[in-house]
Every structure is written in structure tokens, then in C-alpha cells.
Specification:
The chain has 12 helices and 12 strands. By secondary structure, it is of the alpha+beta class. Strand 3 (83-90) and strand 4 form a beta hairpin. The N and C termini lie far apart (57 Å). Bound molecules: adenosine-5'-diphosphate and magnesium ion (MG).
Length: 351
């Protein structure tokens, strides 16, 4: 099509009326075809200009979002001119999971909306039934085997500590054993989907204990972590152990995506509906293709990765009634934002 326009532009001065009519006909046909295709797609497509105004949208976008994209999209705070991916749940006209991707295109942003309700249910189903069974059994076996010697180590170290009270290496060994124990328990807990034990609390508490667990690793790699907690933080209903697992997975990924001396900014905030925890790193980032498959199991770019971390993270956040979104630019870094509904809102919806 580009070549065609180039040709027409070049020769337009020399064309007579008949020739012009003919070329115009070609253009009109092509436009109509792409318009038909645009309308026939079952995925939603919306074009947004630099000022955030909707330029064009297809019927599927309106249908999937349940509202006019002009009304619905601004409430999502999508990043303009950046690649991003998130999943949202809409309740109108029926409860559905939607995947929303933004793709920068020239000076516009294309928003791509896909219904993933069935896919999501299927993935969960397959995971429960299929390949992960083997992984889970293996993990359970290994964790069990490691658990016993760890216990013995810990006991003997405690005995030693009685005789050598001030020896810092014994204290360090004990701390490391406790950490190993924590990792194994976390691993098992993450692989066996467990209903969260929800109780009122703050999103900041499990975050602090997770940061304490990872402190050595951050120091070793000279990674600066900043944490911004507002003074008045609304309560949420959460399972502290499971949320710690969420933070651990996200921070570990950030750590693995960064060179030594990198920076992670963690910001906690809230709006009328949710409490948000955003993890912003200046690591390797991801391209649109990687973002498109994020949260899918067994997708990893690491030699020793499992590709299970984000899937588990997503599952835990969902079980809390929340959502998780990622925003990324290759070479610049990545931001993951976890949203957990405020306690009052949860109570309101339960009523
Ligand atoms: P794993 O860490 O075992 O690879 P995950 O599910 O935790 O599995 O992550 C899946 C993939 O997503 C990673 O392999 C990586 O390519 C990408 N990823 C996740 N978090 C980040 C991040 N903060 N920065 C860059 N890439 C990331
Ligand atoms: Mg990971």
C-alpha cells in the first residue's frame, strides 16, 4: 500500500480525470476493506492520540469493555506511547477477564483488548492436572528431603551457640539456615495453590519482612532500594505469607533483570478502590512480544528460570481480589503494579 501511494503521489500531476477517478477507486476500496476488517475483528482495537483522546475504535472494543472506550479507557490510566500489559476484570455486562495491551505506533498508542476468560480457566485447569503435577511432586519431595537436614543443622548450630555465645559466624549460619527454610516453604506454598487466609492488615508489613529477607542479596549486588509508604494507608484483606511471596517473586525478578548498582523504587499508594504497590526497576526491560506472554507458565528467558514465578504471583493477587499490571521498555526498565482492593470496598461488595 505504501508503494502504491508513493507511485500515485509521484505521478498525480500527470494524471487525467479518468486516471484520477480510477486511482481514487482503488484507495476507496482498500480503505473499505480495512474498515471491514477492523469492524469484523473479535479483539478490540482502539487508537489513542498523544493527548489521550480516542481517535478510532471498533465494535469489539465497545462490546468487550462494556462501555464506550472514550469513557472506560481514561479510568485505567494506560501509559501513552509505551508498551504495557495488564489484566482487568469487568463485571458488566457479565463477569469477564480482559487482557489489555498498549502498543506504541508512530505518535499514537494502539490499545488491544482480548477476552481471556476461557483461556484463564483452561490454564488453571491444565496446570492443576498436567505438567505442574510433576513439578509439584518433585518440589514437594525435594523440600521434604532438604527440610530434615536443615532442621538438624539448625538444632546443632543452636547448641554450638550456647558454647560460643559471641561468635558472629554461628549467628550468620543460623540466619542463612532460616533463610533457606523460608525459601523452601515459600516455594512449596507457591506451587500448591492454597486459598489465602485473608485478614485485615497493611500491604506494607509483608513487604518489610520480604525486604529484610533479600537485604543481603541487594547489598551484595549494590542495588539501592527505596520504599515510599504514605503515612495514612488504608487497610486491605490479605494473607501476609502469600503477599510476601508476591513481593519476593517481583523483587527477585527485578534483581535478576538488573546490573550491579541498579535501583528499585517501591511506591505504595491508594485510590478510592484499591491500595497499590508499584515496583519500578531500571533493569533490562521487556519488549512487546515478551510482555504479550507475561504471566503464562513456563515462559522464561533465564537459563535457570522456571517461568512459574509470575504465574504464581498473578494467581495469588487474583485470589486477593486484586490485579497485577506490567509496563516496560527494553533497556529502560520495568514497573509492576499490584492492586489490592481496600477493605471497605470489599465489605461493600460482599454486602
Ligand atoms: P523466571 O523468573 O523463573 O524466569 P518468572 O515467571 O518470574 O519466571 O518471569 C518470567 C519472565 O518474565 C522472566 O524470565 C523475564 O524474562 C521476564 N521478567 C519478569 N520480571 C521482569 C523484570 N522486572 N524485568 C525484566 N524482565 C522481567
Ligand atoms: Mg522469577
Amino acid at each position: 500500500m505504501k508503494e502504491f501511494f508513493k507511485g500515485v503521489r509521484k505521478h498525480i500531476g500527470k494524471m487525467d480525470a479518468e486516471r484520477l477517478r480510477e486511482q481514487f477507486g482503488h484507495v476507496a476500496d482498500a480503505l473499505e476493506r480495512s474498515e471491514t476488517l477492523f469492524s469484523a475483528l473479535k479483539e478490540g482495537l482502539v487508537r489513542i492520540d498523544q493527548d489521550g483522546q480516542v481517535v478510532q475504535s471498533n465494535p469489539a472494543a465497545r462490546e468487550l469493555l462494556g462501555l464506550a472506550p472514550e469513557e472506560m479507557l481514561p479510568t485505567l490510566g494506560l501509559p501513552l506511547g509505551k508498551s504495557s500489559k495488564r489484566e482487568i476484570t469487568v463485571t458488566y455486562p457479565e463477569k469477564r477477564s480482559l487482557e489489555i495491551q498498549t502498543i506504541p505506533f508512530e505518535d499514537e498508542t494502539i490499545v488491544y483488548v482480548r477476552d481471556i476468560t476461557a483461556e484463564k480457566a483452561r490454564t488453571e485447569e491444565e496446570l492443576r492436572a498436567g505438567a505442574s503435577r510433576a513439578v509439584m511432586d518433585l518440589a514437594a519431595g525435594v523440600a521434604h528431603e532438604i527440610g530434615n537436614p536443615l532442621n538438624a543443622l539448625s538444632l546443632n548450630l543452636q547448641l554450638l551457640q550456647r558454647s560460643y555465645k559471641d561468635d558472629p559466624s554461628i549467628a550468620e549460619c543460623l540466619a542463612q539456615v532460616a533463610r533457606l527454610d523460608g525459601i523452601i516453604r515459600g516455594f512449596l506454598q507457591a506451587l500448591r495453590p492454597q486459598k489465602p487466609n485473608l485478614r485485615p492488615g497493611s500491604v506494607a508489613d509483608p513487604l518489610k519482612s520480604c525486604l529484610a529477607t533479600l537485604k543481603h542479596q541487594f547489598e551484595e549486588r549494590r542495588i539501592t532500594v527505596t520504599l515510599d509508604i504514605p503515612s495514612a494507608l488504608p487497610a486491605v484483606a490479605l494473607d501476609p505469607d502469600q503477599m510476601e511471596q508476591v513481593y519476593f517473586n517481583l523483587l527477585k525478578n527485578a534483581l535478576e533483570a538488573m546490573k550491579d548498582g541498579g535501583r528499585i523504587e517501591i511506591a505504595i499508594g491508594s485510590d478510592d478502590d484499591d491500595v497499590t504497590v508499584a515496583f519500578c526497576d531500571n533493569g533490562a526491560g521487556m519488549n512487546s512480544e515478551q510482555l504479550a506472554h507475561l504471566f503464562e507458565p513456563y515462559r522464561t528467558t533465564k537459563a535457570k528460570g522456571t517461568g512459574l514465578g509470575l504465574m504464581v504471583t498473578d494467581r495469588i493477587v487474583r485470589a486477593h481480589g486484586g490485579t497485577i499490571a506490567a509496563e516496560s521498555s527494553p533497556g529502560e526498565g520495568t514497573t509492576f503494579t499490584v492492586r489490592i482492593p481496600r477493605l471497605e470496598r470489599r465489605i461493600r461488595t460482599l454486602k
